[in-house]
Amino acid sequence: MMRILVMLMCLMPLLGYAGEAKDLAADPLLEKRMIGLADKLRCLVCQNESLASSHAELAEDLRREVREQMKTGKTDQEIIDYLVARYGDFVLYDPPMKSYTLLLWFGPFALLLGGGGVLVYQLRKRRQTIPETTLSAEAQQRAAALLNQDKDNQA
Amino acid sequence: MMRFILPFVIFIILAVFLFRGLSLDPREVPSPLVGKPAPVFNLPQLHAPAKRFSPQEMKGKVWLLNVWASWCVSCVQEHPILVELAQQNIVPIYGLDYKDKSADALAWLNNKGNPYVLTVSDADGRIGIDYGVYGVPETYVIDKQGVIQYKQIGPVTPQNLQEKILPLVAELEKK
Q: For domain B34-174, is the CATH number 3.90.230.10?
């Protein structure tokens, strides 16, 4: 009896799982579309949360706004434009390519190219500074002896 | 020699960037509304809900639109500065009571003084969204043509009032 009780109690945590902030809506399809769009938008109050997962009041209002605009038949792009006109590109998690975001988009590649360039340059320079030397027969013999000695030790 | 200079230069550049980062406020998102006409609204007045107010009535005047709420903590900090500014009669201040209960807002103003020529109630926050409000208090400087010229996010401080808002108002008055 006790054992069954304990096992049942172990199931308790399953009842209280944490989901995303949800607004109950009559239309689950619309809700799904709204959450899909809100996932790509940033909440301005918490800044590192998406509009879909934020519990901030403004996020709730904006979700309501998005939902209502979807009901009136607006496309996702129209709703995004509506929000960008008010809050700027900041609301987008996917920054658009513009003159002032070029550094953001291409900066990492520029750094990679620069770093690669420096690496190639340094390697070339190093190859030039190490002189090619030919060993005399005597030195070759000594080197072979030393290498073999090493092998013997290992064995 | 080069071996020391190059890392040093890189270090200096990094240090400059990081130092600049210290004084940047990530909460300040540049508003796309600056330079654009102030969004239109027609809202009931807080003190006389039967009457309404619309920004079009302010054509030809430079004015401030201050977004506040009785639940807003930093508004308390900002409020005495607005009251003092209102007494100086330099620029009219209009209030937008954002997502608030009228009774709370009226009690708040009674308690702390009312710097506003009038306040309108934006009970459901719709107009707040049109103005891109995300952190109350916010203050907009609107020129004679009804164009937003400046947006202050967060409380107005004596410093940014003296350095930014008042010089801008004086300049806009001349136009």
A: no
Q: Is B30 on the interface with A (CB under 8 A)?
A: yes
Chain B residue at shortest CA distance from A64: B126
- Chain mean position to CA B155: 7
Task: Return the residue in A42, A58, A65 with the most chain B beta carbons within 10 A, the one to mutate for interface testing.
Answer: A58
| B96-130 tens-digit pLDDT | 999 999 999 999 999 999 999 999 999 988 899 99
Q: Is there a contact between B32 and A62 if contact means CB atoms under 8 Å apart?
A: no
Asked if the ipTM is above 0.90, the reply is no
Q: How far apart are CA A124 and CA A121, in angstroms?
A: 5
Q: Give the model confidence (pLDDT) of A48-105 as tens digits.
A: 888 888 888 888 889 988 998 988 888 889 999 999 988 888 888 888 888 888 888 8
Beta carbons of A61 and B125 less than 8 Å apart: yes
Q: Is A140 near chain B, with CB under 8 Å?
A: no
- Alpha-carbon span A120 to A143, nearest angstrom: 32
pTM of structure: 0.73
Exposure b/e, B99-121, CB count within 10 A at least 16 = b:
bbebeebbebbeeeebbbeebbb
**Binary contact (A65, B129; C-beta < 8 A):** yes
What's the topology of domain A20-107? Helicase, Ruva Protein; domain 3 (1.10.8)
Domain ranges of chain A: 20-107
Q: Which residues of A touch B26 (CB under 8 A)?
A: 47
